[in-house]
Structure formats: structure tokens, C-alpha cells
Amino acid sequence: MKAVILAGGLGTRISEESHLRPKPMIEIGGKPILWHIMKMYSHHGINDFVICLGYKGYVIKEYFSNYFLHMSDVTFCMRENKMEIHQKFAEPWNVTLVDTGEHTMTGGRLKQVAPYIDDETFCFTYGDGVSDIDISRLIAYHKSSGRQATVTAIQPPGRYGALHIDNGAVHHFQEKPAGDGAWINGGFFVLEPSVLEYIDGDDTVWEQQPLQRLAANEELSAYQHEGFWQAMDTLRDKNHLEELWSSGNAPWKSW
Questions:
Q1: I need a labelling partner for 161 at 20 to 30 A (CA). Which of 50, 89, 142, 247 fits?
Q2: How far apart are CA 170 and CA 164, in angstroms?
Q3: Which of 38, 7, 35, 37 is closest to 22 using CA atoms?
């Protein structure tokens, strides 16, 4: 099974970092968040990736072209112009990098990589979010549903602390409680190739017409995940993920 990862957005809400590199290449614990996402899938036996490039896609190409240099011990013989790679710590990954255009929408990016997906069930996610989701169970749930698409539904935590007030007195304070109870799109889709027929072209936003039509046709299942989930939309989110990783308590680290 393959995993398709969106990695082409501009990342304007975290411009402090994304003006230098695409958002999926922003590092958590010294590794791009894209690497963390791929490790999550790899832990569940998915090692074949199709990555949709756009904004500063060359940075991602350069990262993977030099992956052995990043991950292994290397000796350079300048006199003979040779490089010797010693211990190889690289992953068992097959990575296809596809330039889908800087301004292409999410659905359009998925449509463009259709030739690399093959005629089989595949995973699809964003290149900026991590979770402790059990991807094997997600895939099994999708297959048991018999529908064309499955979306992971999550309940994001509130952004601010909540005060419980009675007659002017604070009786209880809760730091960052759960949100309003609504389930939202958390990414981590499992899809059948037939969903590509719902995408018209480069201007199609996956989260709009395609998902709305799939839902209207009762072809969209929801896998409700109540565990950890965090998107890296802002510098605050990035710092939060960095703190979790540095503390040794990163919930998404299943490998």
C-alpha cells in the first residue's frame, strides 16, 4: 500500500519558518515533520510514498537525494574524489517526488499523482500533522466499511483555558479543555482510486466538493480518533511539538 502526502502548500501561518523552506521540512527534534509522518506510516508497514511537491519543492528533493549523508557515517576522499558510506541507517522507503505546481489546490495535487498510485487502496494525508493514530486499525476500518473514502475525525483541544464561574467566583479552572465537541477533519485518509473521479482539476479543493459529494453519496466513512493529534499550523504549534519530543513524551513516536 502507498501513502500520498501533501507537501506543497505555502505555510503562510508559520512564515517565520516557511519563508526559508516548505512547511513539511520544518524540523521537530532535528528531523523534518515530514520524516516523522513517514516514520508513523513505516511503523505500520507502509514504506512506499508519493509526495506532492509545490512551494520550494526542490528543498525536499535535495533532502532525499542526500538522505544517506543525513543518516549515515561518511568518509570523503578529496584526493580521489570518492565518497564511502559506512553504516547505513536509511529507512526502507521508496519515495516518489512529484512537482504538482506551486498554486495547485489540495485536490488538484492528488489528481496529478494518479499515475503513481496504481489501482489499489491508498493512504492520503497532510505533511504537517502528527498523531498516535493506529494506522493499521484505520485501514482495517476503511476496508470493513465498504465505502470509497475514510477520513480520520478528531476533536481538537481548546486554545485557551476555561473558567467555570458562579456568582462572580471562579470555582474551577481548566487549562485547554476539549473543544466544543465537534468532530473535524484530522487528515489521515484511506481512499479507493475511484475517489479521483470526484476531482475536476488543479483548482479543486479536496476538502470541499470532492468530500462533500462523497458524503452526499454515502461513500465517506469517519474513523473517530480520540487520542493525540496535532497540526503544525503556527510557530506555537511547532514549539509545542518540539517540547514534547525533547521531553521524551512525543505521543506520535510509535517506532
A1: 247
A2: 6
A3: 7
What contacts 220, CB < 8 A, 6 or more positions away?
Answer: 147, 148, 149, 150, 151, 211, 214
pLDDT of 133 strictly over 90: yes
Q: What one-letter code names the amino acid at 174?
A: Q
Q: Is the pTM of this model over 0.90?
A: no
Average pLDDT on 115-142 reads 96
Do 118 and 99 touch, CB atoms closer than 8 A? no
Pairing of strands 220-224, 149-154: parallel
What's the Cα-to-Cα distance from 202 to each of 54, 111, 113, 129, rounded to whole Å? 12, 8, 11, 23
- Comparing 5 with 83, which gets the higher pLDDT? 5
SS3 per residue for 138-203 = HHHHHHHHCCCEEEEEECCECCCCEEEEECCEEEEEECCCECCCCCEECCCEEECHHHHHHCCCCC
Measured from the Cβ of residue 169, the count of other Cβ atoms closer than 10 Å reads 7
Contact 123, 4 (CB under 8 A): yes
Query: Cα 36–30–136 angle (5° rounding)?
Result: 10
DSSP 123: E
Distance CA 55, CA 66 (A): 19
Q: Pick left, alpha or beta for residue 68 (phi over 0 → left; psi -120 to 50 → alpha; otherwise beta).
A: alpha
User: Nearest CA to 93 among 26, 43, 22?
Assistant: 43
Spatial separation of the C-alpha atoms in residues 86 and 33, rounded to whole Å: 26
Mean pLDDT score, 61-67: 92
